[in-house]
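FIELD: query
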Amino acid sequence: MKLLTVFLFGLMFSATAYSQSDMKHLIKVKISFMEALAPKDTTSSERFQKEYEFAVLTGKDLTREKLKSCGYEITEEKVLYDASDNLQAFEQAKKSEASGAWLIVGPRRSNHYLLAVKGAPETPSVSIMASAKEVFQLNSLHLSLAQSNQQMAEVLAREVQKKFKPNAKYFSIVSEDCVSCVDFAESFDAAAKKLKLKNSHQLKISGEQPNIDSLKKLFLKEKPDFVVIPNYSMVSAYLMGIISKWNSKIFFIGGDGWGDAKYGFVHDSPQLSKVNGMTVKGLPPVNKGLEFFDLGKEILRNPSLASAFPASGSAQALLKAIQDVSDILCKYKPKDKAEFAINFKENGSKYFKNPWGVSVYKLSEGEIVFDKTVK
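FIELD: result
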């Protein structure tokens, strides 16, 4: 973290290194970076917030010269709000649109991103991780850097089939207040059915610590081969902790909400020290993910920057988004927000797209470990 702080100071210093005469002739491109990262948010952390901001500053610094040569300068607005206050995504996006933002780099959660789009329907936006099918049904003014839940669920179902006997049965426990979680569960069920995997029971839950005592009797009677828990990491860790007490050998299956070795509540949680499972994400570990796009490769060529760059999926997705907006600006040379919106709607999907494929991770005795990437 000390190295990160030193490098962050260096970036902030470099951002002021240009003279005012250089800057006043550049077209200011306002980008609103929105995320559920408020300090009081129990599902995130101060470290996550600092690394999010570091990724934005890094992207700006690495694209500054290119944008300057094209006649532009990025000015960012950071909008951080509490994940428990969903409506803030709508309200803050509405404010960003009214304040003249050219682009909204939106929340990673699907339900938050969908609300942001409703708040700013005429402003181009891209989510760094939203994966629900509703996100991919939006018009071309609103995009995501994620793989869709359907794509990830199909890969996961095939991997699960390799592990279990034909006609294996499973239970699923799904947070009904999570759009992406419900969508992932439905996508997995559809893919699993084609592969002769049987969903014997599904329980819909709400809240971070739901009461699932009523499930115990049925669980012990049916003896499922595995349990699908495609929820966010806090809820998933809580549920796995309870169910593993019923059967210490049960195998768990998750979506992309479990987090990874650095972020989330699943990895290395005390109550999950002997738990095993499998999950998928739309992003590989950062040291592998940076190899897939130009700014990432530039970071990897710089040892000091590579060692300081945050090891999070959000960070590399933010970097990719900043690269993409700089490419669009220099390619189409829009003179204002309205012209940028036209360029984005017609061509944005050529730039803002996932280059990584689907990454498979193993949960091995409580630790999330990268396994492989499936294109």
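FIELD: remark
Residues 282 and 358 are 5 Å apart (CA to CA).
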